[in-house]
Amino acid sequence: MFLGIPLGDLAMLAAGLLAAGALAGVLAGLFGVGGGAIIVPILFEAFRLLGVDEEVRMPLAVGTSLAIIIPTSIKSFRGHYKKGAVDMALLKSWAVPVIVGVLVGSAVARFADPWVFKLVFILVAGFNSIKLLFGNDTWRLATDLPKGWLLRAYGSFIGLASALMGIGGGQISNMLMTLHGRGIHQAVATSAGLGLIISIPGAIGYVFAGWGKEGLPPDAIGFVSLLGFLLVVPTTLITAQIGVNLAHAWPKRKLEVAFGIFLALVCLRFVVSIFE
């Protein structure tokens, strides 16, 4: 037994989480996401198998995902930055409102029912998937991103939704940027930088949001599982550069279709979980 988990079950869990980390790292570099969209559902299933209480299972998966995203986002952002694809001016404009949104989302996490997290996941991933798979250049809100308060409002929305989904913001910022005339490659690269801005305050916020909650496993610090963090992070760091290289090698349409299919599968998984 280790942390109250039978060694056989622990070995199976470790193998699954290591594989998930490898896939998450590739996705982080490829799509400019922190890998949370794959990590959250996998952690959710792992915590279910371990008997973690239903009331804390989803926020624990989300908080742990945000912690895992920190090193993944650093690796992904550095790779895209070296290729000169990141819009640094946009990142600076979004930094403060994104952090505000993340902190609000972390506070909501302490009191929200599990279905709230799943519904946010479904709505954002579902719309983004439809847009990527079936949209075209006429699907635009404007020819460029707005200025002033509306741009800051976009940033706050990205931070809030990302904190409730346990993602690095790539799904949402990619969607917003491409709807405003930005190319998918620049959107992916800039989203990698957002992952870093979101994940650090998000993980800290979830530690405090879950502090003292009943039903958490013995390795948890608030809504962050140390075991999940330690098992997933190593492989994400190893494989993130593979995704970065793929992102800059693939043509625009191939990248959009791949991202759209990926998001559709994530969305379907959480639709099923609501009715389980």
User: How many domains?
Assistant: 1
Q: What is the number of E strands?
A: 2
The number of distinct helices, counting runs of at least 4 residues, comes to 10
Shape: globular
**Portion of residues in helices?**
over 70%
Strand ordering within the main sheet? 1-2
Strand content: under 5%
Average residue-wise pLDDT: 83
User: What is the rounded distance between the termini?
Assistant: 30 Å
Note the main sheet. Answer: 2 strands, antiparallel
Rounded to an integer in angstroms, the radius of gyration calculated over CA atoms is: 17 Å
Uncertain regions spanning at least 5 consecutive residues: none
Order of helices and strands: HHHHHHHHEEHH
Helix/strand-derived class?
Answer: mainly alpha
